[in-house]
């Protein structure tokens, strides 16, 4: 048996380029076990530079078989220093902070997940990026649903593929499409149907720029240049936003007149603040219902929020499960439709800015108001005989005061006004 | 300083083709300021024909810098007369009439917008196309959300791009995709996944026809040939529809047997009238609720419609904001799902005709009926002790009479019947 | 006249390859009437092999003109025996069983439709595949909305096109996209944006596998190899599932390490069972409302189900029309969102597994619970003065017993408990 294997091994070796010697111990088996990996590596710059299997994968075969020997960016960093530096400084480098935290309060967490946010033994997170804890996921959904994209933080192969080094893969917008699509941030879809994307399809990249043209100019790995808001859509303060905007106008300037570019982007800012106002109006309605005990079910009557317990949560840590219908409508409004409107406007996509974005945003508000009307009526129905309005108002004031939305003076003044009205 | 600039100018000139002399005064600066425009123009048929910057852009540099020196189709028309004539006669030439009117009643209208519908000093619109006034937009959303597409009426560069003249751009269905996609008219998506589109992708345009093959045969700019309904989906009268259908069958005939083509298109007509019946059923439910004062909120209790004031509007001027939940459901049904069903059927797209269209249409009706049931109950709940049915019926009859839905005689007869029943 | 026609015929003949002699009687006319068909056939392997028009179309010109002379797979089978055998054994070969049955109880059924499920004169269907009877369609929608896809059962031209034989058409994933897209099974969309699909777009089929690579390895027409659940998403028993899984791991193995492939697919199984649990929770809520007479409207108060009459149906025969709002929500949950989650997980698509799938599934549950809460309250509101809880519980027990959900003993025990409580 061994002599046959040895013969095959020799034969395989003879058929391989010299560079393959770097991988000599692994190839005989892996030609059989993982043929695509071997073939792709053989055609790669790594093979040509004599960078073999062990250099990246190490030697712990046991771990590899269990799928635990991840080749993360700490493995790639020492050779690819500039890319490593730019990537870790960018929003991509913080990807997992915003996606991983989700499972932290659930029972089946794997040891080692903590390190994405915490230094060993340190309770304070290393990043101030707000975690997307609305993702209360099973480990399996966490893997496919979260980490398939959020692996970008610490794994170069999220974009570069595992064994090929051909840059045409990462220079193709399809490389970005894997993650930047779908209900919450359909940048791929909006680019595809924008003037930029359609010209790209009909006349090529030089005429119709793609993701990389504007977001990775000159091949930088800092994909966050020119951003004037957080990934959650919160505008940056002027001090941070202004130089970023100037940078983006400079990028647009390689094709467009700066005045034109600035007007287009400033219009995006206007759409953003108009849209945020609609979201805030809806959020206020929901908090008011909460203050008046009218949500169905109330936060205290459902499984507690992993971080905030039996309290209403409408910020980025909002859950999309164990919640009420009106909060679910708000989740769609804020997470999907606000993002579509704003990103659609900045990406010059009429259908996303308007139909998929702004129109949905306004219809969400209609639905939220209608549901609020129903919830108020329901509560009134349950207390027909009581002087409900006054009681309701006093309770609302108390709740607002207790959560710090109004001051002690405003509370006192409000109470006095309600009681005064009752006398008449 | 001036001598350096002059030297650069000369150097630039020497590097350019002779044709560029036509643009001589602009190029030295614009090579720097708008490099893509200059490069594209240099490669264009315009440059070859000695058509320079001023010919299209004029000489008012001040206006250009403010983005107000639009190169609209009146600039292109004198040279491209056939295209101009065909375009203005087509539905594309009426694009803005159906998209621009939306802002007419809002405060921040720009002077000059009126001319899209009105001759100077004339209150009667020049077109009888019904305006899509449901778009009560901010100026910024009006620009990106409406005019990015509806600019097609008076700007050739909507499709042709600004400085290139390569026809491969406009002969690519991507050129149409920019606008003809999204929730309200996803022709691009339904073509892509139809047999026509999938054959186009796998075997090329000759085997799988694209938008231009059927809607712009022989390069005509009249994109409306063969249409048998308005852009809002209202069937044309037979006198107008029949020759249009014959025309479309002739177009199909360059690949298909006429009998087959006719059967396919006639089936689309059937689907259209079946779908319209579902929409009408829903519309009737909403008007009935309105007549009985059961919408929540009623039109009188919300911001007035820009054109119709405190009255219910369910035609093409229907708004998608400041409305009620049930009207919002109807907006989706009529504007999105009816369009998907009908256009899906005419474009031979099973998923759009059925799943995205017909199935949604029927589920909309379920939701509208359920919401109507809730609204009726709510009203009854509020008036437990009164002989509500009779009162309700009398009020409904009165409202119907007042809005002209029933005649004076029908009103009198209806009243008599209700009162008769009350006696027993 | 005849001599002119004869002259044309001769001229046409001279311009054609020798093979065209096989079609000699048809070509002179059909060069005019169906030019694309003639041209495609002339370039086909059929023409080269002297397989002419009559061989497939027969000679009944009358039937052809009416569109009734379908060239189904019984025509192709005798020459293409291997493909025929593999296809009929596969899920594709049972396509119509799951799509055609829908119209069986409706008045305008065409004679001949029965044969898709029944042998002549035999009431027992030849297939145990459950029909998708939720499709209560008009004949026109049945044609475009159902049969454009479900024709796959008995028509090779569903994928192969009508007159071309170039295999590049069927080897292109676009060929699959025609049907495998849309709300209920967007495999095309999830593949396009998966790592497999994006690598296919940027680096070609060898690096990024397409539909055919994994589902039709070595060109088999049995597209169901490796499937571990029914097309409705019901897991197969281990005896059937295990060898299928082993087969799929073997297919993955042509690129991936088997251990990796197995882990990925097993994770899909986990996601499937987690998702099924969410669906079951919702289904239970709806049956409970039905048992308590709280659906609005109740099955007895709406047009009867074509098969089950005035009874609640939530299995694969569920309708999406003539139903209640909460059932409509459940239809979306089960038919769309469950399928997206599960198929998204097996196709390694993060956005479909999570955002379009799992997140929607959980939000559906929120909406269903909220609607259930409203329906319960509504019922209580209608019966304020009665000892409603006990009555409600007794009725529920009775209904459960009558539909066989509890045994006679459980019923007796339940009743005793309720009555016992009433005493206190």
Oligomer: homotrimer
Radius of gyration over C-alpha positions of chain A, nearest whole angstrom = 27 Å
The coarse overall form of chain A would be: globular
Which structural category fits the helices and strands of chain A? mainly alpha
Task: Quickly describe the structure.
With 424 residues, chain A is mainly α. Chain A is built from 21 helices and no strands.
Report on the architecture of this protein:
By secondary structure, chain A is an all-alpha fold. Among the domains of chain A are: 2-69, no CATH class; 271-329 and 354-423, no CATH class. The first copy, chain A, has helices at 2-14, 27-33, 35-42, 45-48, 53-57, 61-65, 73-76, 81-89, 95-99, 139-150, 157-160, 173-177, 187-192, 195-203, 211-215, 238-252, 258-291, 325-346, 350-381, 388-402, 408-423. In chain A, helix 1 packs across helix 2 (27-33), helix 16 (238-252) packs across helix 17 and helix 17 (258-291) packs parallel to helix 19 (350-381). Chain A is globular. The N and C termini of chain A lie far apart (103 Å). The relative contact order of chain A is 0.07. Chains in contact: A-B, A-C, B-C. Chains A and C meet through helix 3, helix 10, helix 12, helix 18 and helix 19 of A and helix 14, helix 17 and helix 19 of C.
Task: Itemize the secondary structure elements and their pairings.
Three copies of one chain form a homotrimer.
Chain A: H1 2-14, H2 27-33, H3 35-42, H4 45-48, H5 53-57, H6 61-65, H7 73-76, H8 81-89, H9 95-99, H10 139-150, H11 157-160, H12 173-177, H13 187-192, H14 195-203, H15 211-215, H16 238-252, H17 258-291, H18 325-346, H19 350-381, H20 388-402, H21 408-423
